[in-house]
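Folds abound. Consider this:
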Amino acid sequence: MAVVALVYQYVERDALKNFDAVVDIRDSRPAIIETLAQVSVSQVDTRKDNYELTKRETAVLVQLAQGKTNKEIADALNVSVHTVISHRKNITHKTGIKSVAGLTVYAMLNNLINENSLF
Protein backbone atom coordinates (compact mmCIF):
# COMPACT_ATOMS: atom_id res chain seq x y z
CA MET A 1 0.00 0.00 0.00
CA ALA A 2 1.31 3.43 -0.92
CA VAL A 3 1.52 6.14 1.71
CA VAL A 4 1.32 9.77 0.60
CA ALA A 5 2.19 12.68 2.87
CA LEU A 6 -0.10 15.72 2.78
CA VAL A 7 1.86 18.76 3.91
CA TYR A 8 0.84 22.36 4.48
CA GLN A 9 4.18 23.87 5.50
CA TYR A 10 7.88 23.16 5.09
CA VAL A 11 8.87 19.70 6.35
CA GLU A 12 12.41 18.34 6.64
CA ARG A 13 13.28 15.71 4.03
CA ASP A 14 14.19 13.19 6.73
CA ALA A 15 10.63 13.36 8.06
CA LEU A 16 9.30 12.40 4.61
CA LYS A 17 11.63 9.51 3.82
CA ASN A 18 9.04 6.85 4.74
CA PHE A 19 6.43 8.21 2.32
CA ASP A 20 6.01 7.11 -1.28
CA ALA A 21 5.04 10.63 -2.38
CA VAL A 22 4.38 14.10 -1.02
CA VAL A 23 1.45 16.37 -1.87
CA ASP A 24 1.41 19.99 -0.75
CA ILE A 25 -2.04 21.49 -0.17
CA ARG A 26 -0.97 24.46 -2.30
CA ASP A 27 -0.23 22.24 -5.32
CA SER A 28 -2.50 22.65 -8.31
CA ARG A 29 -5.24 20.10 -8.87
CA PRO A 30 -3.50 18.62 -11.96
CA ALA A 31 -0.23 18.30 -10.01
CA ILE A 32 -1.97 16.48 -7.17
CA ILE A 33 -3.76 14.15 -9.60
CA GLU A 34 -0.47 13.43 -11.39
CA THR A 35 1.31 12.62 -8.11
CA LEU A 36 -1.49 10.31 -6.97
CA ALA A 37 -1.64 8.71 -10.40
CA GLN A 38 2.07 7.92 -10.33
CA VAL A 39 1.79 6.33 -6.90
CA SER A 40 -1.32 4.38 -7.91
CA VAL A 41 0.28 3.09 -11.09
CA SER A 42 3.29 1.85 -9.17
CA GLN A 43 0.96 0.02 -6.78
CA VAL A 44 -1.31 -1.45 -9.47
CA ASP A 45 1.63 -2.59 -11.59
CA THR A 46 3.03 -4.63 -8.70
CA ARG A 47 -0.19 -6.60 -8.09
CA LYS A 48 0.23 -10.29 -8.77
CA ASP A 49 -3.44 -10.97 -9.47
CA ASN A 50 -4.26 -8.84 -12.47
CA TYR A 51 -7.96 -9.43 -13.12
CA GLU A 52 -10.12 -7.51 -15.52
CA LEU A 53 -13.24 -5.85 -14.22
CA THR A 54 -16.59 -7.02 -15.56
CA LYS A 55 -18.84 -4.57 -17.41
CA ARG A 56 -21.03 -4.22 -14.31
CA GLU A 57 -18.04 -3.65 -12.02
CA THR A 58 -16.81 -1.01 -14.45
CA ALA A 59 -20.22 0.68 -14.39
CA VAL A 60 -20.17 0.69 -10.58
CA LEU A 61 -16.61 2.03 -10.55
CA VAL A 62 -17.45 4.90 -12.90
CA GLN A 63 -20.41 6.00 -10.81
CA LEU A 64 -18.44 5.58 -7.60
CA ALA A 65 -15.69 7.79 -9.01
CA GLN A 66 -18.33 10.39 -9.84
CA GLY A 67 -19.21 10.60 -6.16
CA LYS A 68 -22.45 8.64 -6.13
CA THR A 69 -23.56 6.69 -3.08
CA ASN A 70 -24.26 2.96 -3.06
CA LYS A 71 -28.01 3.70 -3.11
CA GLU A 72 -27.70 6.08 -6.06
CA ILE A 73 -25.63 3.53 -7.97
CA ALA A 74 -28.14 0.77 -7.17
CA ASP A 75 -31.03 2.91 -8.41
CA ALA A 76 -29.20 3.85 -11.62
CA LEU A 77 -28.28 0.23 -12.41
CA ASN A 78 -31.59 -1.27 -11.22
CA VAL A 79 -29.92 -3.57 -8.70
CA SER A 80 -29.98 -3.84 -4.92
CA VAL A 81 -27.61 -1.96 -2.64
CA HIS A 82 -26.22 -5.34 -1.57
CA THR A 83 -25.30 -6.10 -5.19
CA VAL A 84 -23.47 -2.77 -5.45
CA ILE A 85 -21.58 -3.56 -2.24
CA SER A 86 -20.62 -6.97 -3.67
CA HIS A 87 -19.35 -5.32 -6.86
CA ARG A 88 -17.34 -2.85 -4.77
CA LYS A 89 -15.75 -5.72 -2.84
CA ASN A 90 -14.83 -7.41 -6.12
CA ILE A 91 -13.38 -4.18 -7.49
CA THR A 92 -11.29 -3.73 -4.35
CA HIS A 93 -10.07 -7.32 -4.53
CA LYS A 94 -9.18 -7.11 -8.21
CA THR A 95 -7.47 -3.71 -8.09
CA GLY A 96 -6.02 -3.83 -4.59
CA ILE A 97 -7.32 -0.28 -4.05
CA LYS A 98 -9.51 0.34 -1.01
CA SER A 99 -10.25 4.07 -1.02
CA VAL A 100 -12.72 5.90 -3.25
CA ALA A 101 -9.99 8.43 -4.07
CA GLY A 102 -7.67 5.65 -5.20
CA LEU A 103 -10.42 4.05 -7.27
CA THR A 104 -11.11 7.42 -8.87
CA VAL A 105 -7.47 7.74 -9.89
CA TYR A 106 -7.57 4.15 -11.17
CA ALA A 107 -10.66 4.97 -13.26
CA MET A 108 -8.93 8.04 -14.69
CA LEU A 109 -5.74 6.14 -15.51
CA ASN A 110 -7.74 3.46 -17.29
CA ASN A 111 -9.72 6.05 -19.29
CA LEU A 112 -13.02 5.07 -17.71
CA ILE A 113 -13.67 8.68 -16.74
CA ASN A 114 -12.04 12.01 -17.43
CA GLU A 115 -11.35 14.92 -15.11
CA ASN A 116 -14.38 16.85 -16.38
CA SER A 117 -16.83 14.08 -15.46
CA LEU A 118 -15.89 14.16 -11.79
CA PHE A 119 -18.03 17.15 -10.82
Notes: The CA atoms of residues 37 and 105 lie 6 Å apart.
